[in-house]
Amino acid sequence: MRSSYYAVIFSSLQTTDTEGYSEMAEQMELLARTQPGFLEFEHAREGIAISISYWESMEAISQWKANLDHLEAQRLGRDKWYAWYKIRICKVEREYEFNRE
Amino acid sequence: MRSSYYAVIFSSLQTTDTEGYSEMAEQMELLARTQPGFLEFEHAREGIAISISYWESMEAISQWKANLDHLEAQRLGRDKWYAWYKIRICKVEREYEFNRE
Questions:
Q1: Which one of A10, A68, B44, B50 has the fewest CB atoms closer than 10 angstroms to its CB?
Q2: Would you call B75 an interface residue with chain A, using a CB distance cutoff of 8 Å?
Q3: pLDDT digits 0-9 by tens, B4-28
Q4: Record: contact B84-A95, CB cut-off 8 A
Q5: Number of separate domains in chain B
Q6: CATH label of the domain that carries residue A37
């Protein structure tokens, strides 16, 4: 694996007000992918939504957190879309991968 | 937050052979919850499956990895159920939580 990298685990539950949510979620994923230090994105929702973005450094994460369009999305998220969320910033210490050829 | 804890991010894609998978997944979640050092479990599947378990220590993660019933589940996973998986062991460095009201 690369020498060191970071994961942002964003776990959330939505409110019933979903207006504009999917568009914003898609827009933010696309925007994150263009940021310096972005590595990878994984998402699944099944009741709880889990979105994980992977980054080269803590600095890259801080910059993404402070991005102006992202700040506006965060504000709307707290105002409308999320009943609950938890964000965990993690250092990836080890990894294993399995591929069925 | 607690002084330090760890996350195991298990991302996976299934094969078409799903026989016995749901039962085993449920059984492993229940078993994980009884292990020393277990903290929390989050899961969602939407194409990709993401399961995250949270643990008090790396030792707790190693013990869970070496649990005999879990080893058998891992073997079946590689033989039958998974087309791909990636496991990342992470140290949670920071966390934020939002609760509506």
A1: A68
A2: no
A3: 999 999 999 999 999 999 999 999 9
A4: no
A5: 1
A6: 3.30.70.100
